[in-house]
């Protein structure tokens, strides 16, 4: 009887040890999977932020260039195409960010997007010679220049989200 109890205890202990080892292995696999997912998510956000920041800056620069061409009375088709391409590219990047960026980053990106589109509208109306009351090349240039501050705020929020800059 004692021998049977000893064998049962040994077998039971082996089963418990095996089960504990399997659970530990599953936890380890889940931890590795979570770490990989976190790393992939960070890489996806970083790529999204780099592209959105770059394309928003390019759109801002294209608006500035177009305003100079308007002031000089020398808007060419290539200028229009460059501005419209910058707008399309930014729109596509912003659309992607809407699916990827957390709310805090998206709020800053939305402010930039709205400012860019507002200035774009002003520039196109000025180009057509149909400005709204109070719209001039100078007011459009001022609004365009203010976008740089919005871009800096957006970039700072992105950097904090990525852990590149400390949280304020």
Task: Name some characteristics of this structure.
168 residues, 4 helices, Four Helix Bundle (Hemerythrin (Met), subunit A), mainly alpha
Structure in words:
The chain is mostly helical and about 170 residues long. The chain has a domain at about 50-160: Four Helix Bundle (Hemerythrin (Met), subunit A), CATH 1.20.120. Helices cover about 90% and strands about 0% of the residues. Helix 2 packs antiparallel against helix 3 (about 105-130).
Short description:
The chain has helices at 2-72, 77-100, 103-128, 137-162. It has 168 residues and is mainly alpha-helical.
Taking all Cα atoms into account, the compactness measure Rg is: 28 Å
Helix content: over 70%
Q: Calculate the terminal CA-CA distance, rounded to whole Å.
A: 70 Å
Which residue ranges are poorly predicted, with pLDDT under 50 across at least 5 consecutive positions?
Answer: none
How many helices in DSSP terms?
4
Q: What class do helices, strands and sheet pairing give?
A: mainly alpha
CATH class of the domain at 49-162: Mainly Alpha
Globally, the shape reads rod-shaped
Report mean pLDDT, rounded to a whole number: 90
In terms of topology, how is this protein built?
Blueprint: H1 2-72, H2 77-100, H3 103-128, H4 137-162
Helix pairs in contact: 1-2, 1-3, 1-4, 2-3, 3-4
């Amino acid at each position: 009887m004692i021998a049977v109890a000893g064998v049962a205890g040994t077998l039971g202990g082996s089963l418990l040890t095996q089960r504990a080892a399997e659970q530990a292995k599953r936890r380890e696999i889940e931890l590795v999977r979570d770490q990989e997912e976190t790393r992939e998510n960070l890489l996806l956000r970083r790529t999204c932020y780099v592209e959105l920041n770059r394309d928003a800056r390019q759109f801002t620069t294209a608006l500035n260039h177009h305003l100079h061409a308007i002031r000089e009375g020398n808007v060419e088709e290539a200028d229009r195409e460059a501005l419209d391409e910058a707008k399309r590219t930014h729109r596509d990047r912003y659309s992607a960010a809407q699916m990827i960026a957390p709310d805090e980053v998206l709020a800053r990106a939305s402010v930039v997007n709205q400012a860019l589109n507002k200035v774009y509208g002003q520039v196109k109306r000025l180009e057509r010679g149909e400005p709204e009351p109070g719209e001039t090349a100078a007011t459009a240039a001022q609004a365009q220049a203010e976008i740089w501050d919005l871009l800096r705020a957006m970039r700072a929020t992105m950097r904090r989200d990525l852990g590149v800059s400390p949280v304020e």
